[in-house]
Design a protein that fits this description.
Length: 241
């Protein structure tokens, strides 16, 4: 089963972000590396949670993603919040011209190390790469689906080998997922599950459900704890050196 953004998966993601402050904290970590007069492009923006957090810190943000569902969601949020400097657009990274933006943001973007060189060239000044710090994604580990994304160790090896000037940071943040009911938690599992063997799937679902914590909260009585190791790289564009 391939994960897709739906009305409910969007709700789950947004809820976890607000509940934990995950993207607010991520934004605070990268804020020192953006400036008021700079134009930023967020490639593979998803729901654009970081973009909304740093919108006041830059001149403009072009948020691109290949999924029309998330761009539609972002456009509605831009309208409701009255944000004037975020432009969500359905587009692929390959359509972005080299050096078109001051800053390129890649946040948990589905790229391999081999893709990074071409992506880095699209930034005039710097690239901000936010990626998984560990070799497994805590959000999906219970369902044994490794995301097709670069991890921190692989990224750092690439930057060293290619001779890029960069800074590297790590952080351990909370991205726990709250639920209103056990039924809702099971639907969350099913959205992310990819195992076709029904018996194996059932066993993993049982394990998933056994890890729910009771919070005592009237609104969200169940919580799936998810500590998330994050790697952050600030790469100076060679054209800016």
């Amino acid at each position: 089963m391939r994960f897709e953004w739906t009305d409910e998966t969007i709700v789950f993601f947004e809820r976890a972000s607000r509940y934990t402050g995950f993207h607010e904290k991520l934004a605070a970590l990268i804020r020192p590396y953006v400036k008021k007069g700079e134009e930023l492009i967020d490639v593979g923006c998803g729901l654009g949670r970081i973009d909304f957090e740093i919108a006041d810190d830059v001149k403009s943000i072009t948020a691109i993603d290949k999924d029309p569902a998330v761009i539609e969601y972002m456009n509605e949020r831009v309208r409701v919040l009255g944000v004037t400097n975020i432009v969500p657009t359905v587009a692929d990274a390959c359509t972005v011209a080299d050096g078109a933006y001051d800053i390129l943001l890649l946040s948990f973007f589905g790229a391999s190390a081999g893709d990074l060189k071409a992506l880095i060239a699209k930034a005039r000044r710097r690239v901000i790469l936010i990626t998984h710090g560990a070799d497994t994604d805590p959000r999906h580990s219970l369902i044994q689906r490794k995301p097709k994304r670069i991890f921190a160790r692989e990224a750092e090896t690439f930057f060293k080998t290619e001779g890029y000037v960069y800074r590297a940071y790590t952080a351990n943040l909370d991205f726990s997922q709250p639920f209103k009911s056990k039924e809702e938690a099971l639907r969350f599992f099913e959205y992310y599950a990819s195992e076709r063997d029904s018996e194996t799937q059932e066993a993993r679902a049982d394990l998933f459900m056994s890890r729910l914590a009771e919070t005592g909260d009237a609104v969200y009585p169940y919580l799936l704890p998810k500590p998330k190791d994050v790697g952050i790289f600030i790469i100076e564009s060679r054209g800016a050196l």
